[in-house]
Amino acid sequence: MNWAYHPKDDYFIDLRGVRFSFYAYRKRKDKYGFVREFKEYQANKYDNDFKIDHRAFTKNGNPRKISINSAWEYFKAKERKLLSNHQTGSIYGQRKIDVESVFGGLKACLGFKKFSVRGLEKVKREAGIALMAMNIRKLVAKGTNYNCFINKKKRLVKIKERFSLISSILKDLWHSPLNSYLT
Description:
Blueprint (H helix, E strand, L loop, with lengths): L3 E3 L4 E3 L5 E11 L5 E9 L21 E4 L1 H15 L1 H25 L9 H25 L7 H10 L1 H12 L3 H5 L1
Antiparallel strand pairs: 1-2, 2-3, 3-4, 4-5
Helix pairs in contact: 2-3
Pfam family, one: DDE_Tnp_1_6
Protein name: Transposase
InterPro entries: Tnp_DDE_dom (IPR025668)
């Protein structure tokens, strides 16, 4: 959090200069039944001149509030410290290059967000099919200057242009020895 915190009096000051004083302890239960503890801070209604501070209210006229999960803040600080270390930071930086681009492409371009099967072998098969589809997409992209974020009509035209290439690749894959692995 980029707000100034004053631990002696236990209050925050936001970027616009509004003071948020401690208000109450709260507990929230998530959909899995896990209980999280928060400290709730509420914006002070009056400024230093004892005039009503309109920045302390929402559009509906309610006082602004924030909730701070101290356990979450502790772990964020711990990870921030680890990432600021040169050795662990370089390891994390390599992760962005190696792994996340592949999963980002699967999610953004193919809409693959979760597995539809259970069990390690079935998941391996589904992941293999998804990665094959990603590679086929890359093959098509080489020939058409294809981008998954362009206009839908242009994308459909380019896909139709290369449909014969994809269908021939799929026929070859279907009749290959790899097909016995998928079934």
